[in-house]
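SAMPLE LOG
Freezer: B-3
Tube label: C17
Construct: single chain, 639 aa
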Amino acid sequence: MAETIGKQLLKNDLYHAVNADWIKDAKIPDDHASTGSFMDLNDNIDKQLMHDFDDMMDDDISLNQPTLFEFFKLYDLANNFKKRDQDGNAPLLPYLKRITELKSFKELNDQLADWTLTGLPLPFSYSVDQDMKNTQVNTLYAEVPGLFLPDRTYYENDNPAYQQLMPIFTKMAVELLKLADYGEDEANQIIADAKKFDALIAPHVKSAEEAADYSKIYNPMPFADFIKFSDHIDLNELAQQLFKNVPEQIIVSEPKYYQALNQIMNPDTFDLMKSWMLVKVVNRYANYLSEDFRQANNIYSQALSGKKTATPQKKSAFYLATGVFNQTVGDYYAQKYFGEKAKADVEQMVVSMINVYKSRLITNEWLGKATKEKAILKLDSLELQVGYPDKIDKLEYKFKVKPASDGGNLLDNIINFTKISREDSFDQLDKPVDRKKWEMSASTVNAYYHPFKNIIVFPAAILQAPFYSLDQTPSQNYGGIGAVIAHEISHAFDNNGSLFDELGNLNNWWTKEDHQHFTELSKQMIKEFDGLPFAGGKVNGKLTVSENIADAGGLVCALEAAKGEEDYDLYEFFTNWAKIWRNKSTQQYQELLLSVDVHAPAELRANVQVKNLDDFYTTFDVQPGDGMYLEPSQRVKIW
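STRUCTURE (predicted):
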């Protein structure tokens, strides 16, 4: 690589210098919105697994693995498009009928528990998750519904995105309703009424930028007060039917929405709500039906993402089955393709990174003694999951597929699994949290930090080149997976993660002075990214600040770890950092992500963060006037 990349190119634009040949040759598959390092790995794993599973479909070995056996049954059912086309809209009609036959809120209240467990749409919902201030136990949350368009801001100030996208959503909904045997005039009236109800919801829900501050989710209130938010829905009776014990307290994720619930849901809006439910149902379930439903359902998503075609049938069937049995599929992948040697090596890298982070905390010059001690305690308490879990989630053992030979269809199976999943989730209320439970499949190309558990997770699928390989040099690995590892560690100390203590509790462990200083540093990171031009729009520094802080902390720690190796090479470190972010996306997808994604565009993640590091300037001899040069006073240094 050193011989093929011109020095001046690297000094002016690291990302494009490193990735120029790839960018020139890379093609976005017709069924994709993007391609790049993450997506390439994901596509390769999909092909690998689908090939394996095709070979195994008639293999009796699956009979000795109960969840894998059920996965194959579901995969076969999802793949049977001849049967799905023969069934047409028949599997959907009973669920539409439940909505159309509703005459009053009383009738809805009479079936509300089963309605909730079935997964039929409602303008409110319960969920069970860790209590953010006592993360050892599960508690009850009140959630809000999603909008037809990606974000509340689309509905504000005559946003041109609304004028562009809502007609496309409308066209899709009409096509789906017509496939469900509604006449065109009736379909048009249903979507018109549904949009009126959607517009009632929009002003009262958070934007993506507001939701990015997830500590604001924690709004506890007495359950006796919560049920007063609706004069028409019996929230107390619903809770009594869903839970063994009605809790004394509920966490309301968005109080502003629930304060407006009577305004949104009342006898005058009842028919509008029913139309909204119908549109939600046909949109939600279309991918489990015939091919014409599946194609119609992609009209809107293709406009949003810029994809040219829907996902091919075979791959869509694979995704549907894998979505249900994700731990089972992940376990198969990890057992076959992920070695113990690689796992041990990555675990050692994590330990190394944690030690670097601790060293940086100890020598930090702006943290006070008390805050520093708590930060180190949080780091010492950080737990790690690498590769794959020891066992498959017990929930997947409850999923029993009813095949077509016994009268089963794909949609009914999926709804049955929804009921089982929701019953299992609701049953966890007031029970201790399983802090060891994996929440991501081992075959997923991703990684994450969980603030409520103070844990970092690296599934087996991401532990491949260019992120990581036993064939890469340590410097390359630190510029790849090392930076990703340290990024996740850094989330424990970003503007969100820093609000949680070593047990994952929402608990201010900072002194007032230290937190004020951290806030000022965070503002510098917001400023560094805010307004950067990209894809005809501008980056929202507030929306992306937590991920940018994690990128910055991850890169500086990975750099220090790399320099701890005997034969380190910072050229390799920085160029592999740029390589892992290579990405090519459709214009539409870039515009969408600018509005809703908490991550900055990949190109900017690669280029902006390195400008903050002195070692980058010495490695490439970057000088004033070079494209990658940033004045020392403008370089953001937090961790």
